[in-house]
UniProtKB/TrEMBL annotation:
Transmembrane segments: none
Name of the coding gene: mfppA
Name of this chain's protein: Mannosylfructose-phosphate phosphatase
Domain (Sucrose phosphatase-like) ranges: 10-249
GO MF: phosphatase activity
EC number: 3.1.3.79
Record PANTHER family: SUCROSE-PHOSPHATASE 2-RELATED (PTHR46521:SF4)
Keywords: Hydrolase
Group of enzyme by EC: hydrolase
Entries under Pfam families matching the protein: S6PP
Listed InterPro entries: HAD-like_sf, HAD-SF_hydro_IIB, HAD_sf, SPP-like_dom, Sucrose_Phosphatase
Amino acid sequence: MTATETMAIRLFSSDLDGTLVGDNGSTERFRRAFEAVPEAERPLLVYNSGRLVDDIRELIDMVGLPEPDFLIGGVGTMAHDHRNGLPIGGFDDFIGTAFDVETVERIMSNIPDVIRQPERYQNGYKSSWYLQNAKKGRLQAIEDALTAKGLEVKLIYSSKRDLDILPKNADKGACLSWLCQKLDIAHDDVVVAGDTGNDSAMFTVPDVRGIIPANGHDDLRALAKGNDRIYQARGEIADGVIEGLRHFGVAI
């Protein structure tokens, strides 16, 4: 079966800003279309965002998104069951403990040209900074400075500005894969959507299919070259997501 053949999609994991959110009209069209899918055919809905969980919840109400089943926040450093409002058990064990945010911030405060992002973007497993137009060598030097202190970290750099420092086991894709395992859902039954480089980890989860709206960034589009499991939509933001879900057989 090819990526474009109709088959059941059991879970849909989507970024928010620039993917489902950014144009109120397309967000509303997505809400209406998704909620119109018969419940028996509707995939589980996961919002997978760089925003922290409380911020995601506020955004859902603010822009009128459909209510999700699960929330992955903080670039894969938080996992909550939205149906009961509680963190999903076992997530801290998955993340591991070789991450000390205070040590990360102490090291980063001595690195030139980085600016700490506002407190609302920080959590115990995520240290977020602004760094303009960083090259690979600069990012590697930062990672080396952190690992030299015994920290097991992963750097996520996107939009030529946003630098997230996470535990080595954490990112949007790793958390999504962990959730799928908890739910006994195969990656082949999953579709993801995103628009920037910090979404790339979702698209590189083995066997998932992906949707990139027309406003997607080049660093994410590079993953789509020669990959028929990634659909590059003609529509922007949520209109492109609707288009992609239809491409993958969701009756939306």
